[in-house]
């Protein structure tokens, strides 16, 4: 049943959702799918909403192309580095996002990548299918999370959830961010050690997990200088954004054996172009930005993204907005 007052609101999406999710949009709004948010010709009425489902850029030019009719950009995700927040503010366009509901799923993906890398799950799978393997290989070794130090870059919601899970696996937790966490938070993470500098965190961690958002300050955070500070054999995990790292430097460090491994759910761009250095690098696991892609989480994200739209159109406070 269409919600009264919103049945004619035109929503432009950059990608369609799977059918069972798309039905929830269709029931409340009139969606038009337009990759890159190019204004589709012959719209039945002015579009009021951009629903950002697949990380296409939302710039001032994109907003202006709709002739000033966009009232809200609703981001299906917590990270909104692909949306020009200042351009939205200048034009009086509201911005919504979906924090909290994806924290557990994203933290699970970080653990999946970390454990898969530590225990060589992907290589082990290939080895098991290799017909030349006729006896158990007693030389096959891997890394253990229990007893190791996991360094978290960005102890926000997702970073904290990753830390609690690593703690349950028997790791010690270190973290780096600008401000030290409150004592009770450190205590709840097994007396997690605050590293005031990124260098200190990199030098003391067996696994480093990037959980921070991508901003002007954090873009390119991990480059060759930072990689050279890491412990021998240490593994870098990324569930933040691909642009947090210099991917060419990571690929080179993997080639040279200077970095133990890279396991990432995010790349820059997404997907990587054929032949990219990271696709050829050894000890590198890449998943296609699917950290939040569980049915339960994606449904909760969409519910929140639609609630943000409804609230913005009704001029009430959005349930989740980075700037409201
Ligand atoms: C987020 O919400 O930022 C995740 O990366 C999914 O886009």
UniProtKB/TrEMBL annotation:
Task: Provide one Gene Ontology cellular component.
Answer: cytosol
Q: Which domain of life is it from?
A: Eukaryota
Instruction: Please list the GO terms describing molecular function.
Output: glyoxylate reductase (NADPH) activity; hydroxypyruvate reductase [NAD(P)H] activity; NAD binding
Q: Which residues form the D-isomer specific 2-hydroxyacid dehydrogenase catalytic domain?
A: 46-319
Q: Which residues form the D-isomer specific 2-hydroxyacid dehydrogenase NAD-binding domain?
A: 111-291
The protein's UniProt keywords, in alphabetical order, are: NAD, Oxidoreductase
Tell me the protein family, please. Belongs to the D-isomer specific 2-hydroxyacid dehydrogenase family.
| Protein name as annotated | Glyoxylate reductase
């Amino acid at each position: 049943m269409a919600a009264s007052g919103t049945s004619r609101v035109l929503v432009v999406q950059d990608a369609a959702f799977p059918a069972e999710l798309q039905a929830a949009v269709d029931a409340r709004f009139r969606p038009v799918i337009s990759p890159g948010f190019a204004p589709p010709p012959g719209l039945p009425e002015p579009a009021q909403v951009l629903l950002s489902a697949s990380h296409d850029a939302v710039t001032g030019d994109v907003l202006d192309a709709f002739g000033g009719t966009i009232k809200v950009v609703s981001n299906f995700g917590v990270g909104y580095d692909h949306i020009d927040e200042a351009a939205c503010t200048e034009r009086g366009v509201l911005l919504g996002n979906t924090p909290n509901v994806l924290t557990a799923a994203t933290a699970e993906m970080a653990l999946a990548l970390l454990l898969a890398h530590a225990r060589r799950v992907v290589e082990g799978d290939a080895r098991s299918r290799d017909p030349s393997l006729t006896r158990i290989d007693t030389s096959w070794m891997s890394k253990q999370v229990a007893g190791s130090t996991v360094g978290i870059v960005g102890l926000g919601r997702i970073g904290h959830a990753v830390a609690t899970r690593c703690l349950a696996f028997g790791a010690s937790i270190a973290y780096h961010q600008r401000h030290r966490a409150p004592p009770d938070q450190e205590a709840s993470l097994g007396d997690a050690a605050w590293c005031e500098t990124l260098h200190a965190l990199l030098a003391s961690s067996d696994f480093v997990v990037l959980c921070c958002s991508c901003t002007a300050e954090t873009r390119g955070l991990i480059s060759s200088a930072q990689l050279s500070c890491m412990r021998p054999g240490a593994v870098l995990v990324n569930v933040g954004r691909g642009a947090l790292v210099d991917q060419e430097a990571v690929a080179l460090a993997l080639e040279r054996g200077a970095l133990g491994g890279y396991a990432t759910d995010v790349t820059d761009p997404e997907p990587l172009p054929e032949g990219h250095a990271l696709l050829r690098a050894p000890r590198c696991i890449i998943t296609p930005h699917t950290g939040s892609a569980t049915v339960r989480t994606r449904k909760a994200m969409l519910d929140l993204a639609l609630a943000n739209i409804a609230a913005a159109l009704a001029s009430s406070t959005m349930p989740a907005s980075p700037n409201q």
